[in-house]
Predict the structure.
Amino acid sequence: MEVTVKQFVKEFKQQFQSMYAYSYEEGSNEQLYNALGLLVKNYISSYWKETREKYIKNSVKQVYYFSMEFLPGRQLRSNAYNLGLLDVVKEGLSELELSFDQLAEAEADPALGNGGLGRLASCFMDSLASLGMAGNGNGIRYQYGLFRQKFVDGYQVELPENWLRYRNVWETRNDKSTCMVRFGGNVWLEENHQGHLVPHYENTLNVLAVPYDTPMVGYRNDTVNNLRLWSAEIPVEEEANYHTIEETEPIKEITQVLYPDDSNYEGRLLRLKQEYFMVSAGVQSIIRHFRKYNVPRKNIPDKVAIHINDTHPALVVPELMRILIDEEHLSWEQAWEITFKTCSYTNHTILREALEKWPIDMMKELLPRIYMIIEEINNRFVENTLPLYGERITWQTAILQNGVVNMAHLAVIGSHSVNGVAKLHTDILMNDVLKDFFELYPERFNNKTNGITQRRWVHLANPELTKLIDEKIGENWKLTPSELKVFKGFEKDKDTLNKLTDVKLKNKKRLADYIKEVKGITVDPNALFDVQIKRLHAYKRQHLNLLHILHRYLEIKADPSADYVPRVFIFGAKAAPSYHYAKQIIKVINSLADLVNNDPDVGDKLKIVFFENYGVSLAEKIIPAADISEQISLASMEASGTSNMKLMANGALTLATLDGANIEIKDFVGEENLFVFGLSSKEVYELKANQSYQARELYESNPKLKNVLDALTSGTIPNLQDEGYALFDSLVNFNDEYFVLKDFASYVEAQNKVDDLYKDQNEWARKSLLNIASSAPFSADYTIQRYADDIWKVRSCVEEDEGVHLVDEPLY
Ligand code: 26W
């Protein structure tokens, strides 16, 4: 969009004054940020309106991405950038002697998600808009995001994340589009005079769902899509029934806080309320649209695709059935045909303990009508499946089993498409986790390897790298990511390699300054920066990383004067508040950091930095400065991973097991350009099947490993209570569920190769360049294109020469 610096400066001053009634010169960073954000939102608003009108006028098919989590990150910079206004804004502010970077830091980072799944949803929103596709997000406006993590004496402490404290300039409360969501009570069916069975409700708890809409700005294509987040309130007409603040709690609490556990499903009633609340409001607002524009209901699948992001929104299936049958008076068969053609489902985890199974009694009581419908779906499924496939498969795949509603089964049965998020993960779904369903419905299964938006993770997070690439290959790669491969041509160009090394060093210096500022630790920017950033979970094996660091420390202590390649080990990770073992791992890493960082024998040879409160904004600071990307989950456990992609795109070399999307990284960049170690998923499956694994044998037979493990309990690491013993026990006495000890030797070997390569800076830079140049296939733009073509059947609504255009599919 076209705005001159002069115009911007004038409008910014006016905006500030109209909000605060004094001059911008007296404003705090928060106030200046708010004014700037609202001004940018003003610029967005006409495109937002026009995009919506265009979709309606052309009656285009729209995607609704239902997700309990979104992690958009700060939006000021990305919105200004996608609009094409970032330079004007920066220049205008500097004329006023204000720093854009400083104001941008005042924005709260909305932590409305736990990790990978939520961030993926936001990358997808960015790509949908940037491809000019009609894509809407549907989720919850949690008043409190994922807890703010602090370390007290090395222990994780959780504080509330009140992200709305200083207002949220991007959202628009949309009172015109509220919906009513009903819980509990009694329901019975009665025949009306037209012979329809109509449900009657009594004693329900009625909750008003209020939508807050946020613009999702496409990259230079005049497209602005909508992210709709719902908030729970008391219906105005029922306010008089609530006499005290306490009585209003059961309603307000529905959207008060995000559940902070992404690995352990707990059958909590409130969580089920959240899921149905978001689903019901979302589906109602879709159907209302059809009523308003008088679209024949049978055309719904031609006009809408509803995507179920993991099983959390799987109640979409019975909710859509309910509305079509009870409110639109369609027959069961008609309603089912529509529902199943409209819905599609992505699985994001194979962890058994994360699979949602709601107690039937709970579901029945909270959602009586929905439960009736689930029961009917189940009965019809069993009726159809039993004669064709027999008892075993039918009962294994039923939705209702042993007193619970199996949400994954509901999602698969109610969707025309089921996908995993990386090749290996999809294979595991087909051959293991959902194998019986694969027998029933092979045509539904497909892979959609995850992706990331280069706009946020490269263009904005790493402006210097972006400038270097622009200089060498021009700017086409920004609109056509596959063009990045042209950068490969510079792998032997000394000038490019030197500049690449310089860029990395600058980024590392910046991070080193930040480390000094927030952690008080001095690190040498020339040291190798080794990064593991992701949720803390035993399967991701931060403790394997820990054992290797401890091993290094012991080596340095044994021979302080030997030659070591200096390393800084960087961690960012939150543990679920109830995940005791994960918290113990954090404590041990923090205590080891205290020991190592203050040992004069160690100096710059080894440093450990564990950042507090890892999230999108911190990731943007860390990733451009990484040399090594730690992707060391036990093979078969990590569905895809996405930090692996972000780090690769920023020139980090990957140190990985053959798990998730690491396999595709290896395929694209070539085995010689990353460090692979450890068991393969096939070997993991075999080890589990033949139950031959003996962790203690490894402990006893490998002296180096024994040394390291003994150091956990010998008092070497200061200030531990029983955490060292807890780790030792899980690894040695409880037989090491995630085969950490088994992979230790090959991990150490790979780490030594990392050191050797780092000594040859030119060769390191060459491999780094090849990684950057091979990262285009992980652009979420391609991922979304494949979802659009294969699953949603939607197309771009912008002219081919506007915004992002994907001329070819790289390598897939
Ligand atoms: C019921 C509690 C709960 C909440 C969230 C269980 C599971 C989840 C998510 C599915 C966990 C998650 O974020 N999975 C991650 O999804 C990413 C995006 O596809 C993948 O890259 C990661 O490998 C996967 O762990």
